[in-house]
Amino acid sequence: MTTVGFAQSNSSLFSFRNKAIDKTKASRAKWVSSSSLPAPPFSSPSSETFHRTDYGQVIHNDVLCGNNEESRKKKKRVFFLDVSPLCYEGNKPSSQAFGHWLSLFFSQVSLTDPVIAVLDGEEGNKRRRELLPSYKAHRRSPVPGRHSKRPQHFVDDVLKKCNVPVVRMEGHEADDVVATLMEQAVQRGYRAVIASPDKDFKQLISENVQIVIPLADLRRWSFYTLKHYHAQYKCDPQSDLSFRCIMGDEVDGVPGIQHVVPAFGKKTAMKLVRKHGSLESLLSAAAVRTVGRPYAQEALTKYADFLRRNYQVLALKRDVRVQIQDEWLVERDTSNDSEVLSSFFSTLHG
């Protein structure tokens, strides 16, 4: 079931999603330790993690405002707004954080370009849970009676009054819906920009797909492109997915091969992925010849199904039954932004 539209209703303050437990903090720290680059401190349980780097993706005014001649010559842009991670400050749900990032996003990043907001549908992670019961199992469910659908209605109300369609698909996570709509937009000749701090979207980066991330320490949004990915990892974005399939993702409850073969570390995984290009190519090669040291060779053959299962869990789907609509791709009417956001912040501080 798809929920989408432009609403004209009133709502009150919200507490958008549940807290992450301490395991999320520990997992986040381990992820960050693999890079010398710091992670934004506001990340939510589903937003682990992009990094601020020193090679220029921080937005400058000419890029923010789209005033440079080069930006005018580029393809039309459409933004996909991953809403849920923006509703957190640290590990706590925050109306202030949502309003802050949305206000900056509208005024500095998207301007009048079309924006499509996406949220998780009911039982969105059911398919992945069936494949891997530990998937996001450590995240608490909303407390009955304390959390309701009203917070979602509140978020929907703000977005729709700002002329942003809101899409959620029952049985699908927001990431898969974004990946599906992104591909449709690119096929239509658009340049897709995904607005999210979620590391899972790195696998989608290409010449026509960028990510814009909220940097809490700078209190601004910043573009992360294929150029930045190459500079940081020295490989193709598809390799990121393969690497995570091997090493796992503790934040999402996906175990890595090091849990069964401790000697199989990150350096070995990255070396093999860079050489073979993808997980499937690596596993196919390991099935017919030696691809590394004995422990690596044995692990790749013995635990091939384990790794392929991880791929099914971590790979974003691009075949969700949702179709991008022509009216979602028109220039966004920003005439309501100031009034809607002013009312939002007045309610917060009232």
UniProtKB/TrEMBL annotation:
Top-level taxon in the UniProt lineage: Eukaryota
Gene Ontology biological-process annotations: DNA replication, Okazaki fragment processing
A GO CC term assigned to this protein in UniProt: chloroplast
UniProt keyword terms in alphabetical order: Hydrolase, Nuclease
Ranges for domain 5'-3' exonuclease: 76-332
GO molecular function: 5'-3' exonuclease activity; 5'-flap endonuclease activity; DNA binding
Gene3D superfamilies xref list: 5' to 3' exonuclease, C-terminal subdomain, 5'-nuclease
UniProt-recorded name of the protein: 5'-3' exonuclease domain-containing protein
PANTHER family cross-referenced by the UniProt entry: 5'-3' EXONUCLEASE FAMILY PROTEIN (PTHR42646:SF4), FLAP ENDONUCLEASE XNI (PTHR42646)
Hydrolase listed as a keyword: yes
Coiled-coil region: none
